[in-house]
Amino acid sequence: MKFCTVINCMDGRIQIPVIKYLQEKFDAEYVDSVTEPGPNLILANRNDKNLVKSILNRVAISVEKHNSVGIAVVGHHDCAGNPSEYESQLDQIKKSIKFISSIYGGLEVIGLWVNSDWTVEEVD
After folding, report:
1. Are 114 and 77 in contact (CB under 8 A)?
2. Can you give the pLDDT at residue 124?
3. Which of 42, 86, 94, 107 lies most in the core, judged by the most C-beta atoms within 10 Å?
């Protein structure tokens, strides 16, 4: 069994495309999902320390108990929890990657954007 981890928005429209993308990207059978509305905003700003801690605690379970091979942070078009413009969300995803990488430097941490066609794009 091989796992990866996603820090994803709770929006149901993006769950399946993101899971399929990550299964292929990390050659993983299972994707552990940590969901919050607008997680890229939460992790980029880190204003709500309790919420950040909650996210990190759930990621830790995936990494430590399921030996996750990679982590993704997701933002998406038409997000109710993070109604920021595209460029702002990309910046938030990049800041989130940097933050998560500072904790899990041994794992590949990537950013994903789900566009208006519900297609997953990897963030450079």
Report:
1. yes
2. 85
3. 42
Both structure tokens of 12: 């149901």
Q: What angle do CA 12, 99, 11 make, to 5 degrees?
A: 5
- Which residue has tokens 């299964």? 23
pLDDT tens string 1-10: 999 999 999 9
Question: Using CA atoms, how far apart are residues 103 and 105, in angstroms rounded to an integer?
Answer: 6
In angstroms, rounded to a whole number, what is the distance separating the alpha carbons of residues 31 and 71?
A: 9
What mean pLDDT is reported for the chain? 98
Helix/strand/coil (H/E/C) assignment for every residue in 64-108: HHHCCCEEEEEEECCCCCCCCCHHHHHHHHHHHHHHHHHHCCCCE
Phi, psi angles (nearest 5°) of residue 32: -75, 125
> Does the predicted model carry a pTM greater than 0.85?
yes
Give residue for tokens 């996750």. Answer: 68
Residue tagged 């899971």 (tokens) = 19
